[in-house]
Amino acid sequence: MLKRFSTAAFVAVAGFAFFSGGYWFGQSAYAPVDLNGPAADTPAELRQEFAPFWEVWQLVQTNYFRQPLDDGELTKGAIDGLLNSLDDPNTRYLPPEDQDMARRMLAGEFEGIGAEVESVDGAVTIIAPYEGSPAANAGLKPGDILRQADGVELTGMDIARAAALVRGPAGTTVHLVIERDGQLYSVDVVRDVIKIPSVRGEMLDSGLAYVRLSRFGDQTAAELEQLLATLMAQNPRGLILDLRQNPGGNLTTAVDVGDQFLPEGILLIERFGNGREELFEVTDEGLADAIPLAVLIDEGSASASEVLAGAIQDQERGVLIGQTSFGKGTVQTWQELSNGGGVRITIARWLTPDGRWIHEQGLTPDYLVPVAEAAEGQPPADAQLQAAEDYLLGRPVNADNE
After folding, report:
1. Do residues 387 and 295 make contact, with C-beta atoms less than 8 angstroms apart?
2. How far apart are CA 220 and CA 258, in angstroms?
3. CA atoms 10, 14, 15, 18: torsion sign
């Protein structure tokens, strides 16, 4: 996502504060118009254009057969209609509750039970509870299916709607019915504030460092610097940067993260509708800007993830391994509105350092490695991670384009 922002993982988290299809975005420092002023009266030159809108508004208020009407819903519908007419899926209105959730997601702090879930054949299934979370303390386990929340059936429900039922203020309790090994169990979970790091990593047995970025949030750059200091002190033979299913985030964070892995140069080019361009550059002061590098991407790697991966590919700083990325090549502002909601508006394209626009095409990996199928009764092997290890260790890489 480009603050300027993004998102595209279809996974719910933090019980469930969730990552949903789409993108998170923030106010661009280079927005070509001032979006920060107070709402003003209709400009004189537009009053004739707006007259039919207010005529219809009044007719609906006085004549529609279901009364009373919800003015808030009418306003939301009008805003949605205005933005939908632009035919841009990344320009949209966020009601106050969605605006608040998006900001919390970027901050990496949520209120809920602390479980990462996904929809499996229509069932809301726990991938993993976060360590030390209410979900973990309540005994929830990977593979548990959430069947009910406070008496509401979750099976077959959209993952976002299920998330809204399970999450809630810290200190409140949600009554869950779960299915485990074909048996139903009831469990009460007291919600809490869940802090989710966006960076994790470790030294692999092969002597390689592994770094996983799940998003480009407010704390990502600081978390990454701390982790890299620890890993680089162990003199790894190479580094694997995992950007799979990373939907993006703040553009400023992408620049800070890029600073750690790239030598001095251009990270991306921002091109506005009037042809003006802004360059975003990194320095040569990174902790991992010279170590052999392999980057894992897939169809869930979007926006800020593609910015970083695209710059690494253009500068031949490392290789991309995995599957073609999502293809999100635009930049949005994210402006708060007077009602507590927000609006995000596409203001520019972004290009890789070589001038590539990857929108709706994505980045093609240097080594195309599909996801491995799991053997019956066994977890799937991570063929992409194995390919990255093989590349960095100088072994043959098992890839479809080799």
Report:
1. no
2. 12
3. negative
Could you tell me which residues are beta bridge partners of residue 179?
Answer: 145, 184
195: tokens are 């802090």
φ, ψ for residue 234, nearest 5 deg: -95, 10
Whole-Å CA distances, 343 to 32, 51, 93, 164, 217: 16, 24, 4, 21, 19
As a dihedral over the C-alpha atoms of residue 225, residue 226, residue 231, residue 234, rounded to 10 degrees, the angle is: 110
Give the residue among 88, 27, 34 at the shortest CA–CA distance from 335. Answer: 27
β-bridge pairing 239-242 and 145-149: unpaired
Q: Measured between alpha carbons, how far is 70 from 369 in angstroms, rounded to an integer?
A: 52
Say which residue the tokens 């799991």 belong to.
374
Residues 6+ apart with CB under 8 A from 236: 203, 207, 208, 209, 291
Q: What is the pLDDT of residues 133-150, one digit of tens each?
A: 899 899 998 789 999 999
pLDDT in tens, 311-354: 999 999 999 999 999 999 999 888 889 888 889 899 999 999 99
CA 190 to chain centroid, in Å, comes to 26
The structure tokens listed for 172 are 């409140």
Exposed e or buried b for every residue in 296-324, given b needs 16+ CB within 10 A? Answer: bbbbbbbbbbbbbbbbbbbbebbbbbbbb
By annotation, the residues acting in catalysis are: 303, 314, 328
